[in-house]
Structure to design on (182 residues):
């Protein structure tokens, strides 16, 4: 009988262990399912957030690219404008040289040959530099250096009979040809 009692006790104990084990397994399965559901939901939420972030990044990239394009266009326009301003300054400088030569010729004709010679001599370097800028007319402008030297020498010697016409005509020719290009 003791043997049967022990067998029954073992059977009851085994049944109880099986029951407890089944309960634990069910709880673990429920916990796993709950965790899987939560992970699935959080994964879905992360995917949605990632999609929003990706869309915003695309919008930012597009706006940044359009900003860069606008900057390039503005830089190109500024370069063109600066080139135009530089060309205008060169033409203005050429006009000033032309005016100075005419002024020297007026001074010469009004009896102030020495003053006219000084003025003409002072713009000689600028006329030479104009030859560097206007290479098409460089030969003519450089050739006027000898004319300037001869006029300065004559005007200093009080010989006001020679005019500065060859010089201002050379400058005038350059001005006429560059007028449409500026």
């Amino acid at each position: 009988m003791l043997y049967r009692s022990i067998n029954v006790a073992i059977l009851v104990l085994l049944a109880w262990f099986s029951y407890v084990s089944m309960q634990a397994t069910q709880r673990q399965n429920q916990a796993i399912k709950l965790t899987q559901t939560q992970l699935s939901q959080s994964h879905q939420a992360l995917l949605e957030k990632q999609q929003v972030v990706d869309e915003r990044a695309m919008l930012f990239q597009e706006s940044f690219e359009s900003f860069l394009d606008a900057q390039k266009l503005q830089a190109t326009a500024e370069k063109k404008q600066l080139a135009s301003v530089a060309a205008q300054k060169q033409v203005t400088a050429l006009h000033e040289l032309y005016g100075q030569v005419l002024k020297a010729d007026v001074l010469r004709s009004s009896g102030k040959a020495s003053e006219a010679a000084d003025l003409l001599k002072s713009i000689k370097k600028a006329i030479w530099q104009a030859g560097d800028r206007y290479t098409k007319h460089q030969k003519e402008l450089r050739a006027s250096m000898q004319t300037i030297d001869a006029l300065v020498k004559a005007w200093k010697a009080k010989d006001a009979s020679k005019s500065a016409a060859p010089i201002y005509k050379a400058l005038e020719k350059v001005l006429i040809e560059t007028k449409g290009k500026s």
Residues 137 and 173 are 9 Å apart (CA to CA).
